Amino acid sequence: MKLLIVEDEAKTGEYLRQGLSEAGFVVDLTHNGLDGHHLAMTETYDLLILDVMLPDVDGWRILKSIREAGKEVPVLFLTARDSVDDRVKGLELGADDYLVKPFAFAELLARVRTLLRRGTTPATELTLSIADLELDLARHRASRSGQRIHLTAKEFALLELLVRRQGEVLPRSLIASQVWDMNFDSDTNVIDVAIRRLRAKIDDDFTIKLIQTVRGMGYMIDIPGDA
Amino acid sequence: MVRPTSLTARLTLLFIAVATVVFLAFGWIIGRSLESHFGTEDIKELKGIAEAVDQSLTTLQSNHDLTRVNQRFDDILVGHHGALLHIHDASKKTLYASPGLDLAAIPLPAPEQLTKGSVQQWKDNKHNYRVFIQQMSGAASLSNGPYTVVIAVATDFHLHFLRDFRRTLWLMVVCGIAVMGVLGWAVVRHGHRPLRHMIDKISRISTNELNTRLDPGTVPAELSELAISFNELLQRMEEAFIRLSNFSADIAHELRTPATNLMTQTQVALSQARSVTEYQEILYSNMEEYERMAQMIGDMLFLAKADNGLNPPNTDDINLENEVRNLFDYYEAWAEESGVALALNGSADIKGDQLMLRRTLSNLLSNAIRHTPPGNSVTVQLEQSSNDVVIVIQNPGAVIPAEHLDRLFDRFYRIDPSRQRSGEGAGLGLAIVKSIVEAHGGKITALSDETSTQFRIILPTSSSHTKEISD
Lengths: 227, 471
Known about the structure:
By secondary structure, chain A is α/β, with parallel strands linked by helices. Chain A has helices spanning about 10-20, 35-40, 60-70, 85-95, 105-115, 155-165, 170-180, 190-200; strands at about 1-5, 25-30, 45-50, 75-80, 95-100, 125-130, 135, 140-145, 145-150, 210-215, 220. Chain A is about 40% helix and about 20% strand.
């Protein structure tokens, strides 16, 4: 997977490149709009990460230009300004997502993965599984080692999200947004409580603990020692 | 838009207009009364002559006594300056005629007026006359009666006088108006002095002296309203200004604490070589500070936008019952762990911005859950009436002292300052709640007593709930 980052703030750009490279992506980084535009037009990328405010050609114009050239590559905007107008403008021009600074890197990573996955996986599976955990999506049933586990609707939704994106760290804000449709930061530890309860049902009685806390970033489900 | 004329010019012009009307009316009345006075004098004179003529005619014995008659008529006219007399009998034969003027040329009035006598004006090419014409029967012995008597007095002298008088009057009127104009201007300027005083005082108020107030007692009654409203404006500005400066100070203070933590921690960490685990610990700890700062920045931006009216509420149709149920869903596990039950009564629909209202309810709900002792419950009550929706979020808990209730919605306000770093956010939650409610044209109040603490939101249901500060 190859990404292009156009970000004029040198430190931000460098850390984004490092973070995304370490997450397994091939990353090109450029610090100005002209180079960014040139690269976007000539190379093939799976995703563009554009800063809106650039010293020469701003993110809007790059996006407009590549869309006019018929390129359908997904675009994620980064911006320090968060106004409804900007959001609308970005979406009208064909941006796929929008992230306001300051953002958590885990959040960016999760969104990047979402965008890259979009349109590729047909979500028609009837079952999901990791290790000996199995989810029956049609009947909303979960079982581990064949042993039925009783979950509430929200617990099942949370588990499904984790299993679908196994191996990925999901930040709390993304979990709140996906499972409960709460699209703002809460200063409570609601997600931690929900995870703790899910853990009690999924992991407590088993030696292999699947749900993992990634300190400072979020939660993920994975087979321990597998990463 | 055309700028209105200055008050001084306007009042001066009004003074001039009033003076003009008064002077003109006055001049007209004087002119008229003089004229009528002269008329009355003339008529009195004419009537006097007529009476004498009538007496003479009555005493006349025969038609042939002409010389004597003429002599008598001459005598009558002697005392009257410029009076003329003409008498003819029924057969139009002239009995007497003063020299110089052919009074026979004067048209005779209708017969019925002729017997009573009529006064009219007449002029030839040189002079103006007032004329009295009357038919007199004369003595009964006279056979060729009745006699038509025409008496005229010249009025040129009076007319001259009137003309001169009018000219002087006009001059006086014009001068009077001019004087009134100048004096009016001076008086208005003088009368505006309190206003200029006030302007002087107002223009000296700088942002450092917003506590200055005008004294409504020292200005004229007409301006005291203005002074009072101006004072109220100052009051509001001062409050806003103080809030703003406090806000900036608070921001600085709130940011200083995490910045200090970060710097100290990092410097201490770098002062000697440490193990990877220790470095990781430090980075994790740093990240918590960063996250807190990021959230605070986000909240402050949200408030700044709300303050600038950049958040025009969308008008989604929102079922508040569903919203609250969803939030209960979200907070359920957490509330259960804290031993707090959640209850909802009633239902209501409203138009508004779904995300913003959800944030409001979420903030209030999480606050309520946090402050409810285990074993109790948080109650949300929804009431819909024709004009508004009332949302009451209520929980038993420690009483909030009255002096804190109003300030709960202030930014960074905490009842207990020592609790500010206990992970309960930056103290902006309720400020955000308030600004969202106000952006929807609503009101929020807090009440607290021994039984419960409640937050009460009243939102108007009409869709025209834009902020009314645009003008």
